[in-house]
Amino acid sequence: MRNVTDLNFPLTLAPMVGLTHVALRRVISEYMPLNASTHWPTEMLNSRRVPGENLKTTPETLRDDFESNLVPQILGNEQKPIEDSVKRLVNEWGATGIDINMGCPVQKALKHNYGVSLMGDVGYAAEVVRMTKKNATVPVSVKLRAVGSSQSVPELIKFVNTLIDAGADWITLHPRTAEQKRRGQADWNQITELKKNCTVPIIGNGDIQTVEDVLEMLTTTGCDKVMAGRALAARPWMMWQLGEKLGLEAPAGFEGRKAPVTLEEEGAEYGRALMKMIDYSEHYFMSVAGASENLALRKVAFYVRTTHVWLQFGHSLMSAVAVAKNFSDLRINVARFFESEQCMMQKTELRQ
Question: Which residue from 55, 112, 239, 351 has the highest number of Cβ atoms inside 10 Å of its Cβ?
């Protein structure tokens, strides 16, 4: 894979457990400006499980033939599972990059010395990068969190440069500590300082809720690309909005239309995007993977539970989705909800 700076679009989706799957990637990709390219993540993949999984039917590794520039994110700290996972993901599955998770703060990951716990031992963190790099024929990146307060920036820079020396081709920083999780404000200054003091591309992540936030982070920090999570899932047309700001052509199928501007227009677009999510979840998880209807319904319900906070009456939508027993009911309930004009909120207190 070409490095991230060679792909021409400065916004990408974050890897999110239970959310960054093939159905969501397809919904968001349909809002990409014509001829725009970015890299696409997967959900976090456990390196102990990947070697024994059917990559074509496991929900977390489902992919479509049209997808390119896929960079799966792996969680791990042991040589053999990392080696086997990387080789399968690159050689069989078609990964064009590998991302190492050093930012997951959940207890399950910490218990196994995965995720953000690797940031407590710079030597071992670098060894994980070396393990991955040795077995990858594609670029390797690391996604990590802040190491502490703004006074800890020199420590962060030293940590990151050690990972770069070990072979990291780019770095994504979510500048909150593990203890903060999604609370408090992301310290964008740490992204700025990394960009000034590191020789590889830096992707900034944190507090991106609108297209204006994307442009502000790019301008303020000088980062090479911006990563957005839950807000981009809620506003997949942010790709379209950003394309217009950059003077790019409208997405295929949207010629002659302008991206949603008002909060009412965004509310209507959320309904259209949700219907796509329903269609694609049914197709990929049931028809392609052969999973149960219940699993596919849960995928949609989790998407709504995660994104409804940007919708003015999102709690009512969540209830309508939760009571659906099958996809027929689900479509009826969602269509009925959006018969009334809905309105998005520009910002929510749910930090990204």
Answer: 239
The DSSP line for 54-103 is: -TTTSGGG---TT--SEEEEEE---HHHHHHHHHIIIIII--S-EEEEE-
Its pTM surpasses 0.90: yes
Residues in the chain, pLDDT under 50: 1, 105-116, 180-181, 351-352
How far lies 71's CA from each of 38, 214, 228, in Å? 10, 21, 15
Domains of the chain by start residue, with CATH:
4-245 (3.20.20.70), 263-337 (no CATH)
The continuous run of DSSP H or E covering 130 comes out as helix 122-135
127-159 pLDDT tens trace: 999 999 999 999 999 999 886 555 589 989 999
How far apart are the C-alpha atoms of 150 and 152, rounded to whole Å? 5
Residue owning tokens 């992919």: 63
Question: Residue 104's pLDDT is what?
Answer: 55
Instruction: Give the pLDDT confidence of 46-57 residue by residue, as tens digits.
Output: 999 999 999 999
> How many CB atoms sit inside 10 A of residue 260's CB?
20
Contact by Cβ (8 Å): 251, 276: no
